[in-house]
Protein 1
Amino acid sequence: MTVRFTVLLAALLALTLVFGCRPASSAALPPEPTLPAAAALPCPLFPADNVWNTRIDTLPVHPLSDAYVTTIGGDAEFHADFGSGIWPPDDGGPIGIPYVVVPADQPLVPIDFYYPDDSDPGPYPIPPNPPIEGGPDADGDRHILIMQEGTCRLYEVYDAHPREDGGWDAGSGAIFDLYSNALRPAGWTSADAAGLPILPGLVRYDEVAAGEINHALRFTAPETQRAFVWPARHFASDLTGAHYPPLGLRLRLRAGFDLSGFDPQVQVILRAMQRYGIILADNGSAWYVSGAPDERWDNDVLRQLHQLTGDDFEAVDASVLMIDPDSGQAAVLDEAAFLPAVVLWQ
């Protein structure tokens, strides 16, 4: 019997030209998959088809990618804004943005916001002495992140300060249903400038130790545009130049970046940035990616990320994933656009 190899490259190219990177309609989406809990967490960090949990390694490059990268800093070093120990060394706090898991029956406490119109009202299940970003005496953003078991609600607070009566004063607060794709109302902030949740974008030690990060990462840039793009809901700037990146912008580590010389734990982070990318969530230092503090981090290993610069990244056009501007559900891209060359045996 004669075996003929027919490589359907021409057919594949035709399919790609016809379908491109168009998202499938919402009616064509498959049933929502089972939601596994994230590594070492009792609840999923949003549905599996949420934009945070969607790969973007095949998305088209944004036409303003070069301008955005240059504005953030093409030659600026990448930085892990998390680690072990405290900073500053003598009187600082844990390095990163901490979070805490509380039980379903955690007592609720009153909380008042100085941005009440953009906040979800209390009470919130804040435990006694919760971990605060920067430590209890910090002057910075003072975030508190709380995941509640049972309800699978995520409570996030910005600029949190305890009161003597057991309640709290804070800048803003947001409550997210971790089983829902609903976004905050357009124009609303959250505990983060972009109006997005913080916890789903953190690098956590347990998932790195497990060998895979299956979500996008949060990062900051010094100057942003007076605009936001899906899935962000809010801007935090007066700058209007088109070269400034808008909040919500998604970038990815270039596919050709060589991961082989890095520590295995750093490779996990790098692969996540190639596959899921990084989302611009706030104003801050250039290319600072967020994570949770953990005494198991090796800070010397994390410093390997300094070898990356902005020029190793490219912005993508994530709008092709949007089904509904008020939902974080991401469309399933046409499968035909990403099929490998097919070999038929006859």
Protein 2
Amino acid sequence: MGSRLRTAATCSVTLAVALLFLVVRSGAGAAPGELPLGWNNVAYFGVAGPPSEALSAIAGKYNAVYRWNAALQQYEVYSPQLPSFANTLSALRPGDVIWLNVTAAGATLPTSQSAGAPLAGTISIPASAFVPGSDLALYEKSFNELYPVSTDAASQRYYAPVFLPDGAVVTSMKAYFVANSGEVALRLDFTPLANGSATTQVYKLAEILSSAGPSPLTVTAYPHVVDNATNVYFLVVDLTGGPATRLRGVSISYAGGQAP
């Protein structure tokens, strides 16, 4: 119970900060397509390359860019103001989700690798993005680790939304986890927008089972063209071993699709 209260309090604070953030941004007066001043959580759809080259179009208009590295479980950073040895982000790839600190007006990111070019990339989902399937769940969650406190059924299932480019085809999924006992069962699913709770209308794209091998595990996804106008996409994980089963970062790779 204490865990749920702490989580609820944290979510309330996070929501309040997010709302304040949006209010501040709404008054920034940025032109359409232009990034507002301050921190922006955006997807990069330009040509792959070192950050200094990938962001050359906005040189002098930003001072830092961060990207989460699911394999190392930490953020990588590039800043034109830092010495080269201090920069840990060596390259940006199409589809990367980044934090970009914009310092001057007129900053815009490329919307595609080239005119009409297909995208390819990887998105990462931290453990903190998951929410319990039951209000009775007892669990602990940090920025990138999730585990149930007990083995009761209400504490075993968790969900997280997934945002993929329209028209993309998911190629693989990788998960980092701990499974000293019990099972970590992770699925990437989709269901029609109109579906409520009918399990017969939930379709599996990829599945990782901790019983299949040690962390991290990578599996190939079933062929499916992402259609955001028709479906919603999400992750569901079952952690059956209480604190002995823990989920960490998840990454999903895709090919094809078009930048918005």
